[in-house]
# Entry
Amino acid sequence: MTRVLHGSRWLLAAVAALGLAASIAYYFWPEDGVEGSLGVEMVIVSTSLMTIAAAAVAAGAARRGLRTTLDALILLDILGTGFAAYMLEAEILLGLMVLALVVWLFAAFARATPSRQIASAEAAS
# Structure
């Protein structure tokens, strides 16, 4: 179970990095109508912070209270960036934030399951 949880943390960091790449592409792509805008600049900053925070949690650099704080901030970042992507009509970025939300929820609920319950369920079967 810890391998799956650890893998989902790295998957969240990877999705955040893809979101950063997409937001940079939206900044420079002239045909989407939002190139060079302040909104895209804010999304670049938010996705870079999300990438750093998700990588810190996945690498184990954040412990206990800091990890919980970063998890909450990552969730707020996902929701805010998703809303910004919706307002900017950036479909690719919006899709990546939906994927990030699904991965975040999986990681949050996988961690919420105590290992004793898993071990006793495996022993009973």
User: Anything to note?
Assistant: Residues 85 and 91 are 7 Å apart (CA to CA).
